[in-house]
Write the structure tokens for this entry.
Amino acid sequence: MNRFKIELAFLFVILLNTARAQTHFQKLDAWLDQNTREMGGRSILVIYKDGKLVYNHSANDMNMRQKMAARYVARKQGKTAEMENYTLSTRLNIASCSKWYSAALVMTFVDEGKLKLIDTVGKYLPVLSQHGKGRITISQCLSHLTGIQAPELKENIKDVADASSMDEVIATIAKMPMEGEPGKTFHYSNTGLQIAGAVIEKISGKNFETLFAERIAAPLGMKNTDFGKKKVALPAGGALSTPEDYLNFLVMIMNKGVFNGKRILSEASIAQMQINRITPDVKIAYSPAEAHGLGYGYGEWTMGNNIVSSPGLFGSFPWVNNDKKYCGFLMTFYIKNTGRNERYFELMKLVDEAVM
């Protein structure tokens, strides 16, 4: 009889927790439906916890202007405009969400002993030494602490798009002015990761795209992710990916470098990536408005409460909550960032409640 009562009580707790989770997930549905119009008109949110996908919801609330913009962009690309809901396999440009991918790729070389975080870039790229930048370290490249005064984003992207080789891009970076001492000046930009990408190309004799495919995408089952397959990759912002693929990457980060029983990165590398490098003695030359007060590691922002993330210019938002042992990815595509940071924190709070 006592055993029956215990089993009944246990069943009641399970049912109660399930009911609570469903209620909280309904709040997530409502949040996504209410906010999607302000996030480009389409969105998808996926959450992974306890070894499985526990939440997957899409919203579509495109207004006429957003539909017209989608048609215009599609025509420019010679494609047919898509108005359907985003799915797990929807592939979009994820902008700065790419930085997390690229930093992880560089760390595979550190794990293999082919590269050290304290290595100076002039050792691999002499043109940087010729212009007084050779003493910048790999660590500083991954954390936006090079001290280089990077140009406007559009100009930087154009420099890479117009270049015929990675060497040409690095030659351009070599001529950029310095705005502070390496390691003491934070400037969020594409420059440091571009240098790091060039370094691993020199070490391996392979291009960045191939390295990413072999070392990150393939072992993580990321079948629909690449860096555009252009002549020169943009490590800090050129990736195209899907919710399904990005979630695989986040699971690896959450599991301290392991995915499906296979080690992709060492636990030490995961820890290094999540250390805030913006110490009190670091001058912030430039940081996105929505990142005010956050720290930065290697390719990822540190958000407090053991949360790490790498949001993109177009609104996509991946994050890992190490304390609550879950990860999530919000995919969107829009430029206007008014209220974006507040939405991110509001969303994370709702997800915390849903998966507790």
In short: DSSP finds twelve helices and 13 strands in the chain.
